[in-house]
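Deliverable D4.2, example record:
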Amino acid sequence: MIWRFLQKGFWLEAHPFSLSGYNLEKDRYIRLTIKNLGDFTSKAGQLKKGTKVLIDGPHGIFTSRIARHEKFLFIAGGVGITPIRAMLEELSLKEKDCILMYANNSRKDILFESEFEKWQNRMIT
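Output generated by the structure prediction step:
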């Protein structure tokens, strides 16, 4: 999705970010995870709660609806885990068979580690 945050200092720029979580049926939320990698993302923490947003998209077809099989293998590196995290959230609730291969430069770079461990423990037990 392409996001434009309608707050002073942000609204002139639109940026692509993947959803890292969503639950529009139950909790009515969407979740973005933005890693500090540049000028725009370094100031994303200054966005105020309640800031209006223009969203263009979604773009692409990375959804569980297009899956042809009941087992899933996900491969990701670094912040590229964000759209996979959203899909793993959905699939864990459906108790689907999933494998995640996730690489990072160091342990401190791992995003969502505690969430993945929680889902893993729930699905293994």
